[in-house]
Amino acid sequence: MKKQIIAIGIALACTACSNSEDKMIYKDPSSPVSERVEDLLSRMTLEEKIGQMNQFVGVEHIKNAEATLKEEDLHNNTANAFYPGHTYKDLEKWTTEGLVGSFLHVLTLKEANYLQGLALQSRLQIPVIFGIDAIHGNANAPDNTVYPTNIGLASSFDTTMAYRIARETAAEMRAMNMHWTFNPNVEVARDPRWGRVGETYGEDPFLVGAMGAVTTRGYQGDLNSENDVLACVKHFVGGSEPINGTNGSPADLSERTIREVFFPPFEQNIKAGAMSLMTAHNELNGVPCHSNEWLMEDVLRGEWGFKGFVVSDWMDIEHIYDVHATAENLKEAFYQSIMAGMDMHMHGIYWNEYVTELVREGRIPESRIDASVRRILTMKFRLGLFEHPFADEEKSMDIRLSPQHRQTALQAARQSIVLVKNDGILPLSKDKYKNIMVTGINADDINILGDWSAPQKRENVSTVLDGLKKIAPNAQIDFVDQGWDPRNMSAAKVDEAAAKAKKADLNIVVAGEYMMRFRWTERTSGEDTDRSDIDLVGLQNQLIQKVAQSGVPTILILISGRPLGVEWADEHLPAIINAWEPGMYGGQAIAEILYGEVNPSAKLAVTIPRSIGQTQIIYNHKPSQYFHPYATTPSTPLYPFGHGLSYTTYNYSDVVLSKSEIPANGTLKASVKVKNTGERDGVEIVQMYIRDRFSSVSRPVKEMKGFARVELKAGEEKEVSFEITPQMLTFLDVKMHPVVEKGEFIVMIGASSADKDLKKASFFVK
Ligand code: BGC
Hints:
The chain has about 775 residues and is α/β, with parallel strands linked by helices. It has 3 domains: about 45-395, Glycoside hydrolase, family 3, N-terminal domain (TIM Barrel); about 415-625, Rossmann fold, CATH 3.40.50.1700; about 650-765, Immunoglobulins (Immunoglobulin-like, Sandwich). The protein is built from 22 helices and 26 strands. The strands form 7 sheets. The protein has a 6-stranded mixed beta sheet, sandwiched between helices. A 5-stranded parallel beta sheet has the order 4-3-2-1-10. Helix 13 packs across helix 14 and helix 17 (about 405-415) crosses helix 22 (about 585-595). It is globular.
């Protein structure tokens, strides 16, 4: 195989240098990318161009899917696929014919190099671009570093860390010959039923935009080196507020909400240089996002100046016809999507044939096809695929799972785990708690890796049980295994844990959701895994309650990709840790926090409701939202956005403003002094919110406009300042024009979004 690759590489290089008559500009790396693109485009047949716009799943994926999936299930399956009536041999042939532009779901370097070798046998030797869902590290492929998922990373409020993770992920991807990650997901999560909350950076547009933009920059670098990969911002748009909480159900949103809540993170990421974007499964106000010209052309390209390419989501162009029914057949769906601005089809057969027909019939101008192919080829050149089509199998593992990357994963986990309740039992005393009973579905399972992770080698995963054994080697640990499957827990095992709980000094229950993709239908959270409640599944509540009834202190640890309404536990247990999906070193990081080796610092990037009936519960709601509170239950969340405890305490001074009025086109400074008043060093995430007191259109009661991670030694005090700009005060007036209106603005700075945690001051716009 290797010899074959080298031979093709030489052939490619020689064609570039040998033909003096026909100057193959596209093969000359010293020519400008735009000239290379035009030269190549001028040599391509219509079929080859349309092939560049098409993506397929890899051959190993097809073989697995054929073995596990029936043809009638294909329609509803967004994780597995094969192509009915065709075998992987056909796909290999199309690749050698230059009719395949991209692959996804190729999970080994061997296969990637093999498929690339086939593509380079094609007439023009155009390399394929490999896309993969490297959402938290290149975790979806085996033997890579697995960092916390986005919701945990956002809870660290650490943009520097997010950038570093993106750089490391890019290096691990290129070491596997992967060039394009389907991340960052910059959807604003506004419904806890939706199974994909864990993939997002939470509910706040400002935080989502900031985390997404550094991630985009980290992946892409200057899109010029062998360590850079293409970012893909997704899913455009509105699917994170699905009408019934299920993935892909309609989004029915006002233009105001779209522009003020959902668009800003996308726009920010486009401005940060993101060169690809994925449209959303859902329809938006009646128009499928995949045939939505307003989104792709007017807003994305027109208003924001996007120069990259748009890729469809999984079979979603097909769904314009067979789900949304706004096209009468598949060919019409392809037509609508392309004419609305789509560049690449994920994924499958029929595309090449029907789109070719549409051009030949004169319905789609060839110039429209050229525009898409130009965008795609530009990325292939910029990523250096023509010069470096393969990755070196021998060097791959020098980069993947390197000690430095592992260290980053551990540090990121420490920073992403939120201590939501602590009555003082934590940090644990090793002297006091010598016999510990550990139980729960997530105590010792690789599920701690989170969604979008392949089953990584067991020795590369630290579970909570592993972590406890490492950090408290002298404790006697009695582990009562509840299995991994929340739907199939055993009442006898629950009773066994309850009985053993009485004999312990301390009980730790590790509960939550099940997210692993390789058990697609058994999951309780993740893509296409939505719920009509946010309670713990199965016998988990019983387990917690029976263990707690022992009277022995019981701590709850949640591993989950979505908010869970653990109200009973909040009332009855002394401590709760929300660890989200903390990745490969999650167990160690949790144990370090339990024992105080690490002082927790993370804060919630999403509101935790008490129950699903509180949906939609968000901190940046409108003033009238709780004018009439609920009659029989509280209107407050279980834990507010921005909440998270530490083992030290912080004191905030009053807010000092540099001026009482913000000058036209000027700024003002808002400062507080934050003091670590406890006995331990810590990191405090200081949050700044603003409210427009009176406005011509109702405005949220507060909106985050700044945050800072501040390291404070015990006893240390620091001044923390935020610059307030007119842009932060801008909103859309009744005619949808951006305005800053005169009057009072309240600036709030503090430890969470809850009023009790905020110091306030007012300034004016005149
Ligand atoms: C998901 C996308 C993902 C794609 C490829 C789809 O089902 O919605 O987020 O990038 O599959 O795996």
